[in-house]
Every structure is written in C-alpha cells, then in structure tokens.
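Hi all, long-time lurker, first post. I run a small reading group and we've been trying to get comfortable going from sequence to structure in the token notation. Rather than ask abstract questions, I figured I'd post a concrete chain and ask someone more experienced to write out its structure so we can walk through it together at our next meeting. Sequence below, copied exactly:
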Amino acid sequence: MLRFILHLFTAFLLFAAPGFSQEPEPEPDPGPPIAAAGSADEDAAIARRISDIFSEIDALSGVRAEVDAGVVTLTGATATADAARRAETLASRVEGVATVENSIERDVSVAGRVDPALDDTVKRIREAARALPLVGLAVLVFVLVAGLGWFVAGRRGLWRRVTPNLFVAELVAASVKIAAVVFGLVAALTLLDATAVLGALLGAAGVAGLALGFAVKDTIENYVASIMLSVRQPFRPNDHVVIDGQEGRVIRLTSRATVLMTLDGNHLRIPNAAVFKAVILNYTRNAERRFDFLLGVDAADDAEAAVRLGLRTLNGLDFVRDDPAPAGHIEKAGASTLDLNFSGWIDQNQADFLKSRSAALAAVKTALEAGGFTLPEPIYRLRFDQPPPQGAASAAQAATRPATQKASPPAAKGEPADTRPDETIRRRVEEERAEEAAPDLLSENAPTE
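-- Answer (accepted) --
Happy to help. Here is the structure in token form:
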C-alpha cells in the first residue's frame, strides 16, 4: 500500500511540474551557424593560430591544440584552473572554431609550481632594478620638500613675530612640518605613478582621523579652548579672578589647564574647556572696587541722621575715594531695627579690600555709638504655658525687658587702621612664575576681552 502511494505521488509531480513554471525556459543560444564543411587546411590554420597565441602566454605554454572539422581539443597541463578556462575562452574566439573540448589537466608537480614563482620573482627583481633611479629621485624629492618644511618650521623667531604668542607659534610650526611631509609624500608617489596607493592612504587617514576625533573629543575640545584663550585672553598673570565660584590668582595658562593659586595658597587647576565656557569675574582688571556693609540702629532713632553721620565718617577715611563718593541709605526695616547700608570705593593698588571694609565698618559703628545712636541687640520673647515658680516671674520680666544700651565712649585717637594691600599671594605667584620652567600661554602683548 505504501509503495502504491509513493508511485502515485511521483506521477502527480511529473504531470504537475510544467504547471509550476509561469514562463517557458529560454532556449540556449546556439551561437553562430556552423559551416557545412571544413577543409584540412582550415583546421591546420586554426591549430597554428591557437598555438601561436598560447606560445605568447607563459601560463598556457604547456597547452596543445588539435583541430578536426572545426572542433578544437585542448590537451596538456596548466598550473591553475583559471589558466585552463582562459585557454578554452581564447580558443573559442578564433574564427572557424565550432566548439572546444577542454581536456587540460592540472599540473601538480613541484617544478611546475616552483619554476613559475621563481621566474616571476626574477622578473620583479629586474623591474625593481630598472626602477631604482626613479625611486631614488622620488626619495630625493621627498627629503628635499620635507627638509625644507622642517627648516622653515624650526625658525621660532619668525613664527613668534608672526603669531600672537608662543603657543600659537608652536602650533603653526607643527602644521608647517606636517604639511611639508604630506606634500613631499604626494610628490614622491606621483613620480612613482602610485596615485592609487596615495588615494588609499588618504582614505585610511580620513577614516582613522574621524574615529580618533570621536574618541578624543574632550581632549580636542580642551585643546581648541587653549588656543582661543591664548589668542583672546580673559585675564593676565597674577589677576585676581573667580571662575565658576573658584577664586584665586592666575599663575599660568597651559595647553591643558588654567592654574590658579587660591587665597589659601593652594594650587587649583581648571580644564581650559571649562574656563572657556565659564563665567569669569576679574577683580584686577578695574583697580577701583566698591565695598558695602549693613548696620542696624534702633527703630526709634533718626535713621536719616545716622546715614549722614556714617557718610561723614566714610569721607573722613583716607583709603576711601572721594570719586566715586561714598553712599548710604536705609536698606530695610526689621522687627526692632532699621538696617542702614553704607558703601565706599577704594583703589586696590593702595588699599586691601577686606582690610578697608573692616576698618570702614568699625569706624562707622564707633561714630554712630558716639553720636548717641543705639545699635540694639536681638530681643527674645519667652512664653510659659504653666505659671512660673515663685521668684521666676521677676527674672523672666527682667529678661524680656529691653536692655539699656550703654553709650560707648568716643573712639580714642590712635594709629590709623592698616589697609595696605596684602601682597603675600601676589609675591608667591611671581616667585612660582619665575622659578618654574613650565610653558605659559599668557602674553602681555595679546589682546584681552
């Protein structure tokens, strides 16, 4: 039963197979028409023609051709299968050939493999020997062009006069060196007619540069920021700056970071990419700087009179500039005080900011107290949910009663406050700049922003 089913299924496939194809299969190309008859002379001429062709091709020198009635029979041996197929193709293209019978065998002998390789090696050596003068000329051109570029790039004095600072000068010199090497390589390969190799090298360099650019994106960003900061400098050496909340004096600008010395005497390195995008506050650029402070007087006092007294006191201080003049106003009214705001200007080349602010605050406070104005202390109100023990009520009342401000005696005249600039950090920065041999991209001649 199983055999009957298999025979039935096979018969169904045989009858149904033509229906599976929507289009009839194309008939093979019969080729050019074959002549009705051919002479022995024509066969001999075809054989000679094929033999002459094969004799000019080293890989087909061992192939023989026999022709009978236009049918070519190829015999012999070739080193590779490609050579055998090539012999068949060449024979079929000869006029008068009806068909080609390929009976070529593979030559697997050691001599058949080694001899062609040796011949090819000898041939290449001879070609290389003939090309030696041209190769020497190409090498000479490369050396001359690259050497000239390195010589010009090594003239540091020239690039320092042309470019704004040392960092840009070194960058330009390095670019000249690279350009000279590339141009020399292009000229040498052009002489050797190896432009294909040049195209491959440039393509590989482009792909490698793209991949390297993505890999060191942050480093490149930092390097470009260093160039921009060195060309348009936002600060000078020893400037007192605040960069994104980091305060200190500038020691130097390197190709990677901006080095500060904090007011505590510590080194602080900030990447140049962060410095380039940061908000920078420079205290040194303008020698005039304003200080201000708050003082509170009793709400019952005459606040306007207190402001006038404070301004007279500030005008009497030697380190406070007359132009711009000191200023004072009522800042706000507190729970038990009136807050007065006083401000004044100093010359940072002659007075220290913190010392001047401290001395001015002390002087105004002393003048207000001597003038009878009360600078009240904070008042606290105590609440007891249960009756206090006997004897504690009077103490609590005494605690909540406003304290009587004692009048301060007039300030005794003595030596004036020392407001001279503190040169400690400045001197340390100058000492480090003089001792260390690290490269500095800051220049006194470069434009500033």
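A couple of things your group might point at:
The two ends are 102 Å apart (CA to CA).
The first strand starts at residue 63 and ends at 68.
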